[in-house]
Amino acid sequence: MATDYDTPRTADLEDAPEQSLEALKARRADAAADLGDEVDPFETELDLPGADLSGEELNLRVLPRQADEFTCTSCYLVHHRSQLVDERRMICRDCAA
């Protein structure tokens, strides 16, 4: 059966059961309390033993932007000049697409 989505909708307020504000708040609180009780079984499987890297320090040499590179003003990534599409706006090929 085809449905005409342009016709005005009629709300059947007489058919809907009336609920008090307190009942709606209680149902909302019950639903919110149920969200945090369940533990995802896949979450425990993803924990890697000995994966605590809080004491590790990352040493990485960062090079400044070279003469043949530019920083895209849209994605803020450094690209080679061959990726430059709009020199006035300094947009890379990926962002221009």
List keywords for this structure.
97 residues; alpha+beta; two-stranded antiparallel ribbon; 4 strands; DUF4193
| Structural class based on helices, strands and sheet pairing | alpha+beta
Secondary-structure element order, N to C: HHEEEEH
Low-confidence stretches: none
Alpha plus pi helix count:
3
Strand arrangement within the widest β-sheet reads: 1-2
InterPro entries: DUF4193 (IPR025242)
Protein name: dUTPase
Pfam family, one: DUF4193
What does this 3D model show about the protein?
The chain has helices spanning 21-35, 41-46, 93-96, and strands at 69-71, 78-80, 84-86, 91-92. It has 97 residues and is an alpha+beta fold. It has a domain at 64-96. A two-stranded antiparallel sheet has the order 1-2. Strands 3-4 form a two-stranded antiparallel sheet. A hairpin with a 4-residue loop joins strand 3 (84-86) and strand 4. The longest helix is centred in the N-terminal third of the chain and has 15 residues, at 21-35. It is flat and about 70 Å long. It comes from Pseudofrankia inefficax (strain DSM 45817 / CECT 9037 / DDB 130130 / EuI1c) (Frankia inefficax).
Q: Secondary-structure blueprint of this entry?
A:
Layout lengths: L20 H15 L5 H6 L22 E3 L6 E3 L3 E3 L4 E2 H4 L1
Antiparallel strand pairs: 1-2, 3-4
Short description:
Helix content is 26%, strand content 11%.
